[in-house]
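Problem 12. The chain below contains 180 residues. Write out its predicted structure in token notation.
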Amino acid sequence: MTVIFYILAAIMLSAALYVAVSRDIARAIFCFFGVLFALAGLYIFALADFVAVTQILVYAGGVVVLMIFALMLTDKQLLEVIRKEEKTGPRLFRARSLPSILLALGVLAVLLQVAVTVDWSGLQWLNEASAAGNRVTGKENMVENVGINLMTRYLLPFEVISVLLLAALIGAAYLARGRK
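Solution.
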């Protein structure tokens, strides 16, 4: 099991790195699909089966298809301008990307510092939850709990979101139709 976890993590990290440095938008979108799918596998290891299925259906399915649809609707002359800029020379780091690189390195340094200095066994909220018996053992039926809450307590927000998504779909179809 540990080997599968590390394989999924390696796939996710390498695909995410390719998305970050790639100049080809279409390949970056497909690698982003790989990132989302590997993340769903990691959710399964965290005993979050409903979140994993939602990750695959909503994000890996819907969002990536939406990105491909947006890429297909993009003006072809704009893509040609981007390709001409790429032909000036394959440079990974340019002067204009220096602030974003410094910001990313700063965030990485803070995350590493927190991961090293935090006493994970001494967290008060974790000890309180453990003492109260609030643990996920993997035997609970999380999908049933989510379904009951979704169809009782959160029914109105769920319906409002579905109407908003339907309106967005109709608007996208209208814009894709073009002018005559």
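Discussion. The chain has a mean pLDDT of 81. Students who got a different answer should revisit the alignment rule from Section 12.3.
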